[in-house]
Amino acid sequence: MKSGNLVPDNLMLRLIHHELSTRGLLSRPRASPFLLSATSMSDPLSATSFVDPYPPPTAPSQHSPSPTASFILDGFPRTASQASRLDTTININLVVNISTPVPALLARIQTRWVHAPSGRTYNESFQAPRVPGRDDVTGEQLVRRDDDDAATYLERLQKFTKASGPLLEHYRQKGVLWDVEGDTSDEITPKLVDEVLRRFG
After folding, report:
1. Is the dihedral of CA 120, 126, 127, 129 positive or negative?
2. Of the candidates 68, 81, 160, 170, which lies 20 to 30 Å from 92 by C-alpha distance?
3. Beta bridge partners of 26
4. From residue 117, how far is each of 79, 132, 144, 151 by CA, in Å?
5. Whole-structure pTM over 0.85, yes or no?
């Protein structure tokens, strides 16, 4: 991670399973803490640094029957390969694909302002600063991010669409993908709540 690389998939999967088991969200008995092998001294985040004291599960762990045993994975998996590996550990029962029209996203990006020291974000269309161009807390000048432009966003969107296509198809074939579209969270959230209640309420 010090070099800027992403956390290896197998480590992410172990961390997810360990966290969910620790919190009692999976019904499979909690595993013992990870054991560090000798190789961890030279590479503490290598794929072989973690030795599972138990053999890998032959089937995905089951969700706890408790009605409070719910969790959300945000940002993982990002690829179909990661999703396939996650399937061997956890039964995912709902995948939400949120789609916002490109013109709405472009308009939002091009009217976004940031208070650089704190990271506070404002938008001229919604959540505008009380004083135009000034941070509500400090009164300091707001700035535009260098990558908040249409060309940069469209390039990123093209890469994201190409990468996420196989991932969405993976979950569509499993029958757990649900697509929702809207311009704002105020529009999307009620639809999402209704769908969750319809499926699990």
Report:
1. positive
2. 160
3. 63
4. 33, 18, 13, 26
5. no
Gap between the Cα atoms of 128 and 154, Å rounded: 24
Confidence of residue 46 (pLDDT cuts 50, 70, 90): very low
Work out the end-to-end distance of the chain between its first and last CA atoms, rounded to an integer number of angstroms: 40
Distances in Å between the alpha carbon of 197 and those of 41, 182, 191, 192, 194?
A: 48, 19, 10, 9, 5
**31: Cβ contacts below 8 Å, ≥ 6 apart:** 17, 18, 21, 52, 53, 54
Q: What is the rounded CA–CA span in Å between residue 39 and residue 46?
A: 8
Token pair, residue 26, equals: 């999976």
69, 63 contact by CB (below 8 A): yes
For 88-106, the pLDDT digits (tens) are 888 888 999 999 999 988 8
How many CB atoms lie under 10 A from the CB of residue 20? 21
Residue predicted with more confidence, 116 or 149: 116
DSSP three-state, residue 9: helix
The SS3 call for residue 170 is helix
